[in-house]
Known about the structure:
- By secondary structure, the chain is mainly alpha-helical.
- The protein has eleven helices and no strands.
- The chain has helices spanning 3-42, 46-57, 66-81, 85-97, 102-113, 117-130, 135-147, 151-162, 170-183, 187-196, 206-209.
- α8 packs antiparallel against α9.
- It is elongated and about 55 Å long.
- The chain starts with a helix and ends in a 6-residue tail after the last helix.
Amino acid sequence: MNSKGKGIITAVIVVLIALAAFCGFGYISQRMTASEGITYLDKKEYQKAYEQFDHAAGKFTLIFTKQKKDVLFYEGEALYQMGEYGKAIEIYDELIDHGESRAYSLKAYCLAQQKKLNKAIDVCDQGIKEHPDDGEIYCTKYAVLAKQEKYTQGLKVIERALKQKELENKKEVLFARISAYESMFDFDTAYRYKSLSKGCKWQERADIFGDTIIS
């Protein structure tokens, strides 16, 4: 190999090393900045939390890492708590583009807070189509329908979910079924399903079935 070829290879190696170092710095800096955001989020200082998460999300990383995903989820949460539902939706759209199923539910909650319930349902339907085994999206659709007192419709959504052979978040879906029957004042059926579930630790979600998300 002549000296020119060696020079090119050396230059490429130097660039790759520099790029790796820069990416590593960006990753560490992103984590540290996000940690500050979490501290503010825990203190319910949502504006400060958002600023830290937004800054962290802007840090350069070569690929879309799990850490970047987590930062965006936190940023969306801070925006949601601030009532900035439109901006939060933009964050969740980015996460949806990267295949994050949970982002469909969170986007639907934002739309529900904007009183765009039909659009929230449409988002849930899109999520179910893309991720038919994700029980959380079915629960979200049920919650939006329940907000409109459409419990029979909501129950059909839950029953559809339970037909999925590889359903994720199944306990959450089973809890939603009990909630649906209680809302329809069919306490006998609700009690029967509760009895069948003795020994299970229900993952009750105040943000789905309570007043935190859809008020």
